[in-house]
User: Which sequence fits this backbone?
């Protein structure tokens, strides 16, 4: 997952970036509504963690504007306001979930996985394609029931492909899943990770459509 964190508290923002990265996510962070709007226009995100009170306005107004222009990226509101009325207002403004501060990072990560799963139309918590099973909750993978070791970026690419196995993912889409703003994109990184994945899950498990991208192939 690539996650956008919109939070003006630098300590909390850094904690979210570090914690979500440990769960396998690529994380970008901004502090204002203006910067969030620009980030959402420039990159594809699996989900957005949005604080309600921001220096240049309300996160709820930003959320309403996103929904009014058809932006469907799942949004989890993060706020110190935890009354029933506040939750109802947030959800009715277009949020997919609501978590009050202080919160547990494991719960936040689980809620993000849940709203991303719902947005993709999946009910099961794991991703399955033939004999390949990925579990985002514990960052594990098996082939024919046998565990395999995947790097964070290998897991991210395979997750992206398995979320919609019949859909072709372009190189730029996969790079969006792998790299945040502060990271340099290596010119052949996607190709290298795809090669490594084929070694681990089978050479026919990932198809290359030259000039277009990659998709899952036929597997047992």
Assistant:
């Amino acid at each position: 997952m690539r996650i956008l964190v919109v939070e003006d508290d630098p300590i909390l923002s850094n904690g979210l970036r570090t914690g979500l990265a440990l769960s396998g996510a690529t994380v970008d962070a901004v502090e204002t509504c203006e910067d969030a709007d620009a980030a959402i226009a420039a990159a594809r995100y699996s989900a957005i963690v949005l604080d309600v009170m921001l220096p240049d306005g309300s996160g709820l107004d930003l959320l309403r504007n996103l929904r009014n222009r058809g932006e469907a990226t799942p949004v989890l509101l993060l706020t110190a306001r935890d009354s029933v009325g506040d939750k109802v207002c947030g959800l009715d403004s277009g949020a997919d979930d609501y978590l009050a501060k202080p919160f547990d990072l494991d719960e936040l990560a689980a809620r993000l996985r849940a709203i991303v799963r719902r947005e993709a139309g999946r009910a099961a918590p794991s991703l399955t394609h033939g004999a390949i099973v990925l579990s985002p909750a514990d960052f594990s993978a098996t082939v024919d029931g046998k565990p395999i070791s995947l790097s964070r970026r290998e897991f991210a690419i395979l997750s992206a492909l398995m979320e919609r196995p019949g859909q072709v993912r372009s190189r730029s889409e996969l790079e969006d899943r792998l790299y945040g703003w502060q990271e340099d994109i290596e010119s052949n990184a996607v190709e290298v990770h795809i090669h490594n994945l084929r070694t681990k899950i089978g050479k026919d498990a990932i198809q290359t459509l030259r000039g277009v991208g990659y998709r899952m192939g036929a597997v047992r």
Notes: The longest helix spans residues 105-119. Helices lie at 10-22, 33-42, 59-68, 84-92, 105-119, 152-163, 171-178, 189-201.
